[in-house]
Automatic annotation (TrEMBL):
It comes from Monodelphis domestica (Gray short-tailed opossum). The chain crosses the membrane at residues 12-33, 45-68, 89-110. This is Transmembrane 4 L six family member 5. The gene is TM4SF5. Coiled coil: none annotated. One of its GO terms (biological process) is regulation of G1/S transition of mitotic cell cycle. Belongs to the L6 tetraspanin family. One of its GO terms (molecular function) is arginine binding. It is found in: Membrane. GO terms for cellular component: lysosomal membrane; membrane; plasma membrane.
Length: 194
């Protein structure tokens, strides 16, 4: 496969993944789809890993990869597609960093668990220092009284962020290698190719 066609496919895969991360982070800001709990959000939600890392820092490489795989003002000139491939190299490096950030914050959020109100009306991270894995034992989730269903909400959305950012990491890494090859070797497409 040509480096240009590969870049276009990778870019078209990265864009929806970044939008999924953006949406998941927005939903994390409103636990149980209610805005009254924003004063007690978990610290990992405020790190905006899905918005910044998996979202914006991956959306830019996705767009750059689509542009690198297309034709434009420098598509068949003196440098062919190499200028856009070089931009895609730098964008993909930022995409790798952003997806790593999102993956690490999401993993830490899943390990520690959400902040919630427990029986004595204190707000705490009840799963932070327990020996049992709360992810596989949903009966422990009842310790969180407010916000309602916050554990399921956080686990589901941070799991989505983890999966999406892991896939973004792989795709950005592939595009980093692909764009580097495209810079040095050019694009194998001919002028008439789409």
């Amino acid at each position: 496969m040509c480096t240009g066609k590969c870049a276009r496919c990778l870019g078209l895969s990265l864009i929806p993944l970044s939008l999924i991360c953006l949406l998941a982070n927005i939903l994390l800001l409103v636990p149980n789809a209610e805005t009254k709990w924003t004063d007690h959000l978990s610290k990992h939600v405020w790190f905006m890993a899905g918005f910044i890392g998996g979202g914006l820092l991956v959306l830019c490489p996705g767009i750059a990869a689509v542009r690198a795989g297309g034709k434009g003002c420098c598509g068949a000139g003196c440098c062919g597609n190499r200028c856009r491939m070089l931009r895609s190299v730098f964008s993909s490096a930022f995409g790798v960093l952003g997806s790593l950030y999102c993956l690490s914050v999401s993993g830490a959020a899943l390990k520690i668990g959400p902040q919630c109100q427990i029986e004595d009306n204190t707000w705490t991270y009840p799963f932070e220092n327990i020996d049992v894995n709360y992810l596989s034992n949903s009966t422990l989730w009842d310790v969180c009284q407010n916000p309602p269903n916050v554990v399921a909400w956080n686990v589901g959305l941070f799991a989505i962020l983890s999966a999406a950012s892991a896939l973004e990491l792989v795709l950005c890494g592939i595009q980093l290698v692909n764009a580097t090859i495209g810079v040095f070797c050019g694009d194998c497409r001919k002028r008439g190719d789409p």
